[in-house]
Amino acid sequence: MRTQHSQTNKNHRFIDELTRRGFIGRTIGLIAALIGTALTLPLAVYTIIPALRRRSEDWVDILNPDQLRPKEPMSVEMVTSVRDGWLKSASVKSVWVVRKNDHDVVVYSPLCTHLGCGYRWEAERQAFFCPCHASVFDIDGRVLAGPAPRPLDTLPFKIESSRLWIIYKEFKAGTPKKIEL
Amino acid sequence: MPRRLYQWLDERIKLQPIKIKLLDEPIPGGASWIYVYGSVTLFLFVLQVISGMFLAIYYNASPDHAYDSILYIEQEVPFGSFIRGLHHWGASLMMVVIGLHMLQVFLYGAYKRPREVMWIVGVVLFLLTLGFGFSGYLLPWDQRAYWATQVGINIVGTLPLVGDLLVRIIRGGQQLGALTLSRFYALHTLFLPWAVVLLIAVHLFILRRVGPAGPWDPQKAQRIRESFYPKQVFMDAVAILLTFAVLFILAAWSRVPLADRANPSDVSFMPLPEWYFLFYYQLLKYFHGPWEIIGTLVLPLLFYALLFLLPFLDHTPRRDLLSRRGVLICGGLFLVMVFGLMGVSLKQSASLSVTDPAVEQGRRLYVKLGCSGCHQIHGEGNAVGPDLSYVGDTREADWLIRHFKDPQAVVPGSIMPGYKLIDQELKSLTAYMLSLKHSARR
Would you call B238 an interface residue with chain A, using a CB distance cutoff of 8 Å? Predict the structure, then answer.
């Protein structure tokens, strides 16, 4: 009788101990999960988001549009400031600027849409000619001959306080669609 | 799921004995809230390692780019200032918790035989932590960093015979510059962490060999015996959670200081070290000329000697407070001195620079409105409009307010746009402008 009683008592204590231990164990687990989550989320965003960000380009003032004469494309060099994370560096780029008529201007990226070579204007043929693989474009950027898959890439521009401002961009070479890099 | 994974692993690599060994460590006298500091210190160290590794993703240790990379973390990276906050405040909290841990060991006489080696390893860990603090302070490469490190290294230079050589070795060259920054970075992120990890392992290994000291009363220690798990682990976890909550709040809502970019030619900057070095900084002010060496060599050596030799100086087997009055009084006097000097230093530095909350609001407004698009303050921003570095010396409050409301009415022909600011904003922006003075830079 006595042994039986002490046996039940022991069992009770065992179960009691078990659930208490279980509760404490779960609380400890919860604390660990809480701290883990509070750290993991900010750290993941911190690491990943800047890697997905697009580089920001700024408007660059390149010239007074009055300098342009119709049907005479002009290669203009300019300094763009490139921001690569915390590293700011200036780089010299050039673009082709064309006056189509009194009101209209167009700006082309200087890289051939085929494989990214620099092309030039040939005044006697009235066409842009790429020396690498002989792609030829007319003054409106349309492909006249050669392997180029799409017309010349135009760049965004605006005329403000009688200056021409552009944003320099580069596009993926060799694709029929214009895809910004 | 975690349980099944554990069972799966246990069947194969026999985890159970390790688990029992780790969790069933007997705690003489039972679990106590007094014993949590060691675990909290370990937690903070791990957290410093994590936040430090993530800061290193964007940080660049060269004088050309260190400051820009910190600005990038602060301003451009999402949660950047939060992670930097975790690292900055984590370091301070670690000092606090290590202090409490040492105080607890001191009060309990837990450094006595057979735990002398554990105490000595602990003291080395403490000194390495101070090394972390000193080397990390330079990394942002701002004015505070540059000048505080300059002073710190020059203290070493006052040592007789070896001073000059040591200074050269610490700087890595003739002057504080690129070589100093890169060796401080290597020290902070490679040498010290590995040394500390190794010594923590030794510290814990000894703990498991000799066991915790337990209460003063050996009978109480005999009477109550509990295992480490679950009660002590639970107490440790709660203490860790509270520490983390404090750190989280500090990191999320308190800005980590960043002064202007380091400028070796601007000697007007008065640097202050981190708060845990303040008492020593203050102490040095009392020793001049031939007495300087007392502050730079004699007292530090005495301090290290006492710290390392404590278990051998206080070597009687009894650990209770009453039979150790002499040691306790010495320890108490030391703490009074440390906190007294710290208080004096804080009071003196507070009287030098009182930061009005309106100034801080104004500074934020200045950033928000993009004023730096046209104005420069200490080299930051574009030089289209007037330089505002010391505008507080030349303009009056009501001139500034009238000018913010309608720039052209005050300065005809000014190209500055008028901003529609509410009165509160006008006041704080003006307070910020007025704080930009030569006299405020020290």
Answer: yes
Selected residue of A17, A21, A23, A28 to mutate for chain B interface (largest B Cβ count, 10 A): A28
**How high is the ipTM of this complex?**
0.77
Partner-chain contact A87 B80, CB within 8 Å: no
Before B230, cis peptide (omega within 30)? yes
Q: Give residue B98's pLDDT.
A: 98
- Does residue B197 have a pLDDT over 80? yes
A38, B241: Cβ pair inside 8 Å? no
For chain B, positions 34-63, list CB contacts with chain A under 8 A: 47, 50, 54, 57-58, 60
Summary mean pLDDT of chain B = 90
Instruction: Provide the terminal-to-terminal Cα distance of chain B, rounded to the nearest Å.
Output: 60
Is A114 within 8 Å of A147 (Cβ atoms)?
A: yes
pLDDT at B138 over 90: yes
d(Cα A3, Cα B57) in Å, to the nearest integer?
67
Q: Looking at chain B, how many residues does it have?
A: 442
- Within 8 A by CB and 6+ apart from A15, the residues are none
Mean pLDDT across A84-95: 86
Cα radius of gyration rounded to whole Å, chain A = 33
How far is B226 from B435, CA to CA, in rounded Å? Answer: 60
B65 touching A, CB under 8 A? yes
At residue B173, what are phi and psi to the nearest 5 degrees?
175, -165
**Chain segment A113-166, per-residue pLDDT in tens:** 999 899 999 988 899 999 999 999 999 999 999 999 999 999 999 888 888 889
The answer to whether B227 faces chain A, any CB pair under 8 Å, is no
In this structure, the strands spanning A120-122 and A105-108 are: unpaired
pLDDT of residue B442: 41
Using the 8-state DSSP alphabet, how is residue B380 labeled? B
Query: Cα angle vertex B244, ends B30, B259, to 5°?
Result: 140
